[in-house]
Prior knowledge:
This protein is mainly β.
Amino acid sequence: MTRVLWLIPAVLLFSIAARAQEAPAAWEFSGGYSYLDADLKGSHFHLNGGGGSVTENVNSWFGGRTEFNAYQGNEAITTSGVTTVYSVNAQQITYGTIFSYRRFSRITPFGNVQLGVMHGSVHYLGISQSAFKFAVAPGAGVDIALNPRTAIRLNGEYLLTRFLSLTQQNVTASVGIVIRFGHR
Length: 184
């Protein structure tokens, strides 16, 4: 966690120094593929899914983003020599600030700090009943403009959750399409 904390002030300073070449879109809607590498005490399992986000750009470098992701995968558990495969799923909904660096015409790097909840189904990270838990998701990414109204978004986040009284240090990655509306 402390390794990630240095990223927050760096992104803030990087974003504050940015000067926009053109005004950003007022709203951005994004959707696409999402991946979660879930971690519990050193054992990992991999979930695939999709997600979407809505971003309101307040000015050229600062905005707010609501994000939703849903993941699904399988987990194999061996008990008394018998292996049982369970279908597991998780959903994440977060909101937070986004800091963009709009210095380039086609590439917009960004950093974000999101807070919200993570819902895990039965067997997600070994839980015995579905649960909602607090989630923190700092991350970074880049939008690659295809034209003034659309872009491809590549995004990664460090997803910190706490199930079963244990801290999970998960990683998410996503790729999707961004549609932009309005002007600031």
